[in-house]
Amino acid sequence: MIGAKLGAGREADVHAWGDYAVVKLYRPGFGGHRAEAAALATLDGHGVAPKLIDVVDHDGRTGLVLERLGGQDMLTLLQRQPWRVLGLARALATAHLAMHAVRVPTGLPDLREVLAARIGDAGLPAPLRDFVVRVLDGLPDGDHVCHGDYHPGNVLVAADRVSVIDWVGTTRGVPEADHARTLLLLRRADPLPGTPVLSRALMAVGRSVFAHGYTRAYTGGSPGPLRQVDSWLIVHTAARLSEGIDIERPTLIDLLDRAGQRGGGQTRGGR
Hints:
Blueprint: E1 2-8, E2 12-17, E3 21-26, H1 32-43, E4 52-58, E5 61-67, E6 72-73, H2 74-80, H3 85-100, H4 111-120, H5 126-137, E7 144-146, E8 155-158, E9 161-164, E10 171-173, H6 175-188, H7 197-221, H8 229-240, H9 249-262
Helix pairs in contact: 3-7, 4-5, 4-8, 5-8, 6-7, 6-8, 8-9
């Protein structure tokens, strides 16, 4: 049943699987299928993710057979139809709120434990690491679905549906934590290497408008006040460093330095 390759990522390849499904084939040594399968089973019927049809083995590789979705990813739409920026920002927030309404007491990794491990791998100077760990220690556990990498590139938009893909980093935690991760990506994730200076300038303006629209819609649609978002931003900024994106490192370290100084700590991390 396996068909043409439709896409590829760090952990998996995606192939057609018959006429109405795809199979996401994980490479040997990657175990993201466990969290993704658990997340999709939890979200079944909530309308924010593709339906998990089956778990298969193909040539020694684990595959998730998923509902085949239509539409384009939101990042492509923003590039091709920039006049839709505010409407798409609201759609991003609406789908995020729908995801965060789902509770999952067991079966997914704990977000705080995942973040603690990533902070340990971030290569932070000791004063900065100690500051971030203190912030994390003061943040709560939760039992809501948290995507972990929620941004326009992982959202498919069709005429009648918005669907979220790539659930390999799903955890359970508080909605504010996942919201903060998205804010960090929208505001700080660096464009691909080689992006022209003019394009970078235009992207900076557009992403600011988009991030503001998403934040306003998410805050306005939240069932209650958002708590400790700034603290979650500090933690996610540190955890982001574990991803090894060298061009972002000076900016992220500077953000942590300034946050530590506002908190009264001695945290200078250098460059």
